[in-house]
Structure formats: C-alpha cells, structure tokens
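Comment on this:
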Amino acid sequence: MARRDKNTAAFISLVLGWMGLHQLYLRKPAMAFLFIGLLIFFKLPMAIVFGFINAVLLLMMSDEEFDRRYNSNEAGQQGPNWDRRRDYRRRDQRNRDYRRSDGPYRRTFDQPNPVMQRKPNPFKTTGVKKYKDFDIDGAIEDFRQALEIDPNDIATHFNIACAYSLNEEKEKAYNHLSKAVQLGFKDLQKIKTHDDLAYVRIQPEFEAFENSGFTINPFTEQKQDSETPQTEEPGNLLEDDLLLSQLNKLKELREKGLITEEEFAMETRKLRQ
C-alpha cells in the first residue's frame, strides 16, 4: 500500500470531510462511519464543522506523529525510521569500504574512540565528593589512590594540592602543583587566586615558585642543596693536619715530663691562635 500523506489527508478533510472520506483515505473505516452518523443525526453544517476541525488537527500534527498513527503498519513505509536505518546502512557500507582500503583513510567509524571509552576513575570521583563535603583527609586519600591509577591526571594533581594546602602541608602542595603544571596545567592565574591555595601563597617559598613558572618545587631545590657534600679547600686540610701533629707532640712531651702543665697550656693556646 502507498504511504499516506498528511497534507493530502488534511485537504480531503477540509473539502470532503463532512462525508468522512479523509478517514477512508487514512484507512480508518470505523471513523468514516462515525462522520456519516454525524451527517445523518446532526445534519450537514455540523458534519462540515467536524471535517474542518479534523483538517486543522491534521495540519498541526507533526510528521513523526502522523507516521506513527497512520503509516506505522505499512510494509513499505519510508518515514523517519526508514531514513535512520538507511543512514546506518550507508555508514556500515562506508566502514566496509574503508576496511578494504589501503589508503590513509583506513580508520573506520566503528573503531573505538580511546577518549570516549576511557572509564572514569572511581577514586577521583569520590575524592571530589569528599572534598566538597569538607572531608579533606578522606579526599586526600582518594586522590592518592586515583593518582596510582592515573599518575598523569592534571586535575587530580591540582585538587590534591588544594587539599594539602587546606591541611597546611605546603611541601606536598607545592609538589603536586608543580607536577600539574609540568603535565600541562595552563590556568596559572588560578594558582594565584584560588581560595584553597591561600596558605601556599603566603609562604616565603611562593615567590621563588612563581618565578620558576610554577614548575619547580622549592622544597626539592632545598633538599638537593642540603644533600650536596661540603668540600673543604686543600689548604685548610693541610693546616688542620699540621695543627693536629703539633698538638700530639706537645702531649707526648707533657706525658714524658719534659714540659709542665702550664707550658703545655700556653703552647696549645699559641697554636690555636
């Protein structure tokens, strides 16, 4: 059977609706008999009014609603659902063509998108919730576990830095802020204005941190400096060895009774001057 058209049905209802012919066009014979009953019992004017109202309702009806009511049972209907299936078939055909191709467009539409398929980090989600609920210690613990799953998550590094700042653990806060910037955190102004980083900003190390572009943890620099062995000048080592040798000789002379305690003390003071 041919697909029914909404505008055609409305036109028939407007012109010949008083006889119910539009209902026959729509293959609703029971409704057509209803209009004939109106014509018999309520006379022609009332039937014409009902036909006009039916035409207006048909014109106001959306194409999808019209197809659902009057074209849904057609074996050969080509409404919106058919168009959608046709698009799917075309896409599937393009996929098969690309799979057979050796050119640069071998990627198909049905290949998985790694960004879209990336599963959310559960600890990151719970950490954010605890952070908003002011459970700072719980948030830090969840953020740490989230970083074990994804050590390069920029947002998690920034969030845990804020949490450490609220806990007044400035060294850890600086550490994660620097990692976030190194991984690609771009909104550096946020580091200067975020309320939860106020504790970090009032620290004496913040100026050096800012001058480094927020990439170098000042505490890491201090540790490296403290761990660097202090080397003494060769001249100082020779002088210390000579002084020690002279003191040992004076001690031997005192033990042998060749010099008195007073003489030992006096000579020792001279050597140390």
In short: Residues 122-227 form a domain with the Serine Threonine Protein Phosphatase 5, Tetratricopeptide repeat fold (CATH 1.25.40.10).
